[in-house]
Write a structure and sequence with these properties.
The complex is a heterodimer. Chain A has helices at 2-22, 26-39, 43-50, 53-60, 62-67, 88-101, 115-127, 144-152, 177-191, 210-220, 236-249, 261-273, 290-297, 311-325, 348-352; strands spanning 74-79, 104-109, 132-135, 157-160, 171-174, 195-201, 225-231, 255-258, 282-286, 303-306, 335-336, 340-342. By secondary structure, chain A is α/β, with parallel strands linked by helices. Chain A has three domains: 2-60; 72-175 and 309-336, Rossmann fold (3-Layer(aba) Sandwich); 178-306, Response regulator (Rossmann fold), CATH 3.40.50. Chain B has one domain (72-178, 193-356). The longest helix of chain B has 27 residues, at 246-272. The chains are: A alpha/beta, B mainly alpha.
């Protein structure tokens, strides 16, 4: 077991070392060091050691001694909504895995689900000789040719967050958006067995949320739960206004549900503003913004969905590295990152903590 | 606006002079003349279109004409009127500011960082608005002194600010300081004084909009600054030769525009309790602001425009969005209807504009 212990310590050291490198001021640096010294006995001395060049040399050789690979790999993650806060934990996961394994990454693609831009970025990565590429397959055919080309050049390709089985990718890490929508639809049917419900989507056609609502619609079709789909807009304050207006025109509706983070937060805020819980109105949606978490814990909604975006960055990086380190013998596996339905009680730990895993902090650990 | 049966020159006519000189019309001609005079006002056409839209929605949606909906309607248009007013001032000056979207996104984040550094809420607002003024100053200097076209300058500033917002915030959503909180036991909303004043109070955005629109309209029509703005927008070279300090005027107007965009960013962030560093939001705000300004009767070419018109243009867009949302228009159709409505409103503006030029008014 000693190899695993060393690995664990190594991991903590690397993460803390790069974290203290990011600190902006002497105060925050001192505070962070003091906190950790209090938590882990002797960690103060360890931190001083970590900042020395000797520690840097030691850390750099870490993955080599464990995995037998000294090379600093460069992985390219193509994404369809590069600036969307949903993927902040994903980027954290990629960063942590890269720091752990001595690799580097590039986060690129399109801001607006433009498949053409994503394919261009994919091809640029192939030309630049990336050591691995990961991409959400938001289009059924557009990525097939680039994937084949990359695999032909010995570049492993994984898909994450969104999948298309007919593509030649080596594995898929994530939870299918359409399936998650179907599960939400089933949840909605259980909460509102009959009557009208509203389904809100920020920007119809956007590839990271449209499949969710398609799944929900498919699950609810033909049932006694009738739904109306409404667009709420790209700006969060606008989403709030739209959902409030909608409610005033549809006070007979029994439930308000949303498939993106901003609309979900606005649903909960609308329920709070008009005291809809007292009228038995149900509400729920996706993702965890700070306000969504607070309002759910305060009972202003029924559920939200956590798709563990951190793992969707961490695990692909790990797999791509292991694929190289093991000389293609191992590393690749499909991973279902799961779907967590959080309710009033299970959301509480999210409210009490900030971490890179949820995209609410840039510091290592959970605080 | 009530039609009087031609006994005297109508009190609500824009200028009583010409009507008196022409003699007082009798009978059915008077309300028609009044209508003609009204719609030849710069703001007249957009007012009529807005009223028509409001009547349509009131007739087809029972809840539209009620207090609750009025309060919701405010959240669509009051902030838009403020940001459009600043943009109009600059458009009259012959320039355009695309970076208002970026400032809208950047200001709440700056407020968060300044407040997080230990400075109380209201001083943080003042400091943030000063930073926005500085951004406007930079825009103005690059445009007026260095001679870069304002479209390009502000396009660059827009992307720079959006990127800076993402970098500083690490693309994380943050809770806006001072915004309404939630009582953990009752679940009810708790709105503090700061939040009441700065956007979360029911009428706070409307009051801000009314004050700012009135101030800017007075500045435009009654002060030398406004006069110089119009002069520079109409003919920059002639204005310079007449002794107007063109560079100062342009820079000052850029500062006004950016400051108002920053104020709106803060108001909206307080109302929604969240700072969302998402550039797509910024770009849609930008387009709505310019649409309000243009629908309200401000020319893209510069030299002529109206702040009141921007207010009414914002009201038009607000009523449109509110009505379509209440009706529960299918998600896929929303943009389609919005686009058609904007084109239709502009066609009427252009048609009336031709009528106005032919009638010799304005």
């Amino acid at each position: 077991m000693s190899v695993h212990d060393d690995f664990g310590n190594e991991a903590i050291e690397r993460l803390e070392w790069s974290d203290s490198k990011q600190d902006q001021s002497p105060q925050t640096k001192a505070r962070a060091v003091t906190r950790r010294a209090a938590l882990v006995g002797g960690a103060g001395a360890l931190a001083a050691f970590m900042l020395s060049p000797a520690a840097q040399a030691l850390a750099a050789s870490g993955p080599g001694s464990i995995f037998g690979s000294q090379k600093k790999y460069h992985f390219v993650f193509v994404n369809h909504v590069t600036t969307n806060p949903f993927f902040t934990p994903t980027i954290n996961g990629i960063q942590d895995a890269c720091n752990l394994l001595g690799c580097s990454y590039q986060w690129t693609g399109s801001e607006t689900s433009n498949v053409g831009q994503m394919v261009t970025a994919f091809n640029a990565a192939i030309t630049a000789g990336a050591d691995g590429i990961a991409v959400p397959l938001i289009d059924p055919t557009a990525f097939n040719a680039p994937t084949t080309k990359a695999l032909g050049k010995g570049i492993p390709v994984l898909s994450y967050n969104a999948d298309e089985p007919s593509n030649g990718r080596l594995a898929y890490i994530g939870q299918d958006l359409f399936v998650s929508g179907q599960q939400m639809g089933a949840h909605i049917k259980a909460l509102v067995p009959s009557g009208n419900v509203a389904l809100f989507i920020a920007t119809p056609g956007s590839a990271n949320i449209q499949p969710r609502i398609d799944g929900a619609k498919a699950a609810l079709k033909g049932s006694a739960t009738k739904f109306t789909v409404t667009a709420t807009g790209a700006a969060l304050p606008q989403e709030l206004s739209t959902i409030q207006s909608f409610w005033q025109g549809h006070t007979s509706y029994k439930g308000l549900f949303a498939v993106d983070g901003g609309s979900t937060q606005s649903v909960f805020q609308t329920i709070q503003k008009y005291n809809l819980r007292g009228k038995g109105i149900k509400g729920g949606g996706y993702d965890l913004t700070p306000i969504t978490q607070k309002l759910l814990a305060a009972g202003q909604g029924d559920f939200t969905i956590d798709q563990q975006p951190y793992l969707q960055g961490f695990i692909p990086t790990l797999e791509l590295f292991l694929y190289h380190a093991s000389d293609h013998l191992s590393g690749i596996a499909d991973v279902d990152t799961g779907l967590k339905f959080l309710d009033k009680t299970t959301v509480k730990p999210y409210n009490n903590t900030k971490s890179r895993y949820e995209g609410t902090s840039t510091k290592a650990g959970v605080s | 606006m009530a039609a009087t049966t031609g006994t005297d020159a109508p009190a609500s006519a824009p200028s009583g002079g010409p009507a008196r000189r022409r003699g007082v019309p009798r009978g059915a001609a008077a309300p028609l003349l009044l209508l003609k005079r009204f719609i030849t006002m710069r703001e007249g056409s957009v007012t009529i279109v807005t009223i028509a839209l409001a009547i349509y929605f009131s007739a087809t949606i029972p809840v539209f004409f009620g207090v609750a909906n009025f309060q919701t309607l405010l959240t669509y248009f009051a902030w838009l009127a403020i940001i459009a007013a600043g943009e109009v001032f600059l458009m009259i000056n012959g320039e355009i500011d695309l970076s208002i979207g970026g400032v809208y996104l950047f200001a709440p984040l700056m407020f968060y960082e300044i407040n997080g550094g230990g400075i109380p809420l209201v001083p943080s607002v003042i400091l943030t608005l000063t930073i926005c003024m500085a951004i406007g100053f930079v825009n103005g200097v690059i445009t007026a002194v260095l001679g870069v076209n304002s479209f390009i300058t502000t396009l660059g500033t827009l992307f720079t600010l959006e990127g800076l917002t993402l970098i500083i915030s690490h693309a994380q959503q943050l809770i806006m300081p001072g915004s309404p909180g939630t009582n953990p036991t009752t679940g009810a909303q708790e709105v503090g004084t700061f939040a009441q004043v700065f956007g979360a109070g029911t009428y706070s955005e409307l009051i801000w909009a009314a004050i700012i629109v009135v101030l800017l309209q007075v500045a435009l029509t009654r002060t030398r600054w406004g006069l110089h703005t119009i002069a520079v927008g109409s003919n920059k070279i002639a204005a310079a030769e007449a002794g107007v300090k063109v560079r100062t005027v342009v820079i000052r107007n850029f500062m006004v525009c950016s400051t108002l965009a920053g104020l709106v960013g803060i108001l909206e962030a307080v109302r929604s309790s969240t700072i969302t560093p998402d550039p797509s939001a910024a770009n849609s705000i930008l387009l709505y602001a310019i649409a309000s300004a243009v629908i309200g009767g401000t020319l893209l070419a510069g030299g002529s425009g109206t702040i009141i018109g921007a207010f009414i243009g914002a009201l038009f867009l607000g009523i449109l969005q509110d009505g379509l949302a209440i009706k529960g228009v299918n998600a896929d159709y929303l943009d389609f209807y919005l686009g058609l409505a904007i084109i239709f409103a502009m066609l009427i503006n252009v048609y009336i504009g031709r009528t106005r030029r032919r009638s010799g008014v304005g």
